[in-house]
Specification:
The chain is of the alpha/beta class and about 475 residues long. It contains 13 helices and twelve strands. Bound molecules: zinc ion (ZN).
């Protein structure tokens, strides 16, 4: 079919021409379409770029406007936390002085307080940095457009860093907690022996059947026992310290009253017997460190002379020779406390001093039926602390004022001479019944004294003694 000529067909030249027109038209249409598509795509990309640019500008502008307020707020929060922690920690640190001895517990709180104060007092700064939104250029040469670069200033953070303030506050809280826990333990360790002293005073004073109001001490002991039962974690150290002080003061004051009563009663009884050291030439012979076998010989001499004496006994010897201690008391002599093992009391801690005094008093009471009320500290070694502990154990401290040095000379004649040379009304004569040479001298010493019109008394009756 295609090979047969078509009579209606145009001439070949016209046909060719028409084909070109058709082709050209198609091409133009295609190109125009492509151009439209390309322009549309470019436009959309540009719109997107503009939107991104504007969003970024809005973002940095907002950041610039609000960053300082945010940084200030964060700093203020951190500062408030830190200031609160300092205010909580400072009293704990102050109160722990003389209470928490371990520097490993207390020093970290000291350091944390120093760091906290340093940060709290540091001048705050808000360093600024710039944020830039890059310029955007439209690549289309027909619609040349450019969005300019935008630069704003933004506060990045506060100096000091709020995080550092918070961390310093955390340190303060944890180190203060450790000190507070150590304080609670300390308070319990303080309260326990004071409670024990209160109980000891209640028992001792009740046993003496003295006319003393014990209600306040009873209440304090009950309160303290409740605190101790509740456990260390529940302890309020300040309340425990007040309770400790109440117990100590009340025990001491009741004992003080009782000791004064005993002295007054014994002096009144002596006056009733015709001895008054305010007018008489009183001398007290005192014998330390027994009772030992030699003490029995001394007792016979004293009995023959009808002379009273005072025996400051070592508890350990009382426990070994209770029957001698008993014989001393039965002989009308005054039995007193000279510690358990003859140490220098000032070198011992409180608990050890209490133990030295109480065990001796207990041994004497067990052996003789009567608790002693005088203490002569070995070597005369005493200070305010030991005196206070003695009072709270129901003991008055008594030293001496005439030293025979019998332990050194170990010579009966020297011992006798030492007394004769130094004696005066009110003399409290120190001797030791553990030395035979001393016991040998006693009969002659008594004769010498009586020849000089001295009156022999137990040491508590002397009016110019230690008290
Ligand atoms: Zn002694």
């Amino acid at each position: 079919m295609s090979t047969s000529p078509d009579p209606g067909a145009p001439a070949p030249a016209r046909r060719r021409h028409a084909r070109w027109w058709w082709l050209g038209g198609t091409l133009v249409l295609l190109l125009t379409g492509a151009a439209f598509v390309a322009a549309e795509l470019e436009h959309r990309a540009w719109v997107e770029a503009v939107a991104e640019y504007e969003a970024e500008v809005a973002r940095v502008t907002e950041e610039a406007e609000t960053s300082r307020a945010r940084a200030e707020e964060a700093y203020a929060d951190g500062l408030a936390t830190l200031t609160g922690a300092i205010d909580q920690a400072r009293p704990v640190y102050r109160a722990s002085e003389d209470q928490v001895a371990d520097p490993a517990v207390r020093d970290p709180l000291d350091d944390a307080l120093a760091e906290g104060r340093r940060l709290r007092d540091a001048e705050v700064a808000y360093p600024v940095e710039t944020r830039t939104v890059e310029a955007v250029t439209r690549p289309n040469p027909f619609f040349a457009e450019e969005l300019p670069a935008v630069t704003v200033e933004v506060v990045d953070a506060a100096q000091p860093d709020p995080a550092a303030l918070e961390s310093a506050a955390t340190d303060l809280v944890s180190t203060a907690d450790a000190v507070a826990a150590a304080r609670r333990e300390w308070a319990v360790a303080e309260l326990r022996p004071a409670t024990d002293e209160g109980r000891y005073a209640l028992t001792g004073l009740r046993a003496q059947d003295a006319d003393l109001g014990l209600g306040a001490l009873d209440d304090a002991v009950t309160a303290a026992e409740a605190v101790l039962d509740a456990g260390v974690d529940a302890v309020d150290p300040d309340a425990a310290v007040r309770l400790r002080d109440t117990l100590i003061e009340t025990s001491a004051s009741l004992w003080r009253t009782r000791l004064d009563q005993i002295t007054a009663e014994r002096r009144a009884a002596a006056r009733a017997d015709g001895v008054d050291c305010r007018v008489d030439r009183c001398v007290a012979l005192t014998f330390d460190d027994g009772p030992v076998a030699e003490t029995e010989r001394l007792l016979r001499i004293l009995e023959r002379k009808d002379a009273p004496a005072t025996f400051f006994m070592v508890g350990d010897n009382v426990a070994r020779n209770p029957q001698i201690a008993r014989a001393v008391a039965d002989g009308g002599h005054l039995v007193a406390n000279h510690s358990w093992s003859h140490p220098q009391l000032t070198t011992l801690d409180d608990a050890a001093v209490r133990e030295e005094l109480r065990s001796t008093s207990d041994a004497i009471r067990e052996a003789t039926g009567t608790a002693p009320f005088l203490l002569r500290p070995p070597y005369g070694d005493v200070d305010g602390r030991v005196r206070s502990l003695a009072t709270r154990a129901g003991l008055d401290v008594m030293l001496w004022n005439l030293d025979t040095l019998d332990w050194e000379t170990r010579d009966a004649k020297e011992t006798r001479r030492a007394v004769r040379k130094q004696v005066e009304p009110g003399s409290n004569v120190l001797m030791h019944d553990i030395h035979a040479t001393t016991v040998d001298a006693v009969g002659k010493i008594i004769k010498d004294l009586r020849d000089e019109d001295y009156v022999l008394v137990t040491a508590d009756l002397l009016v110019d003694d230690e008290d």
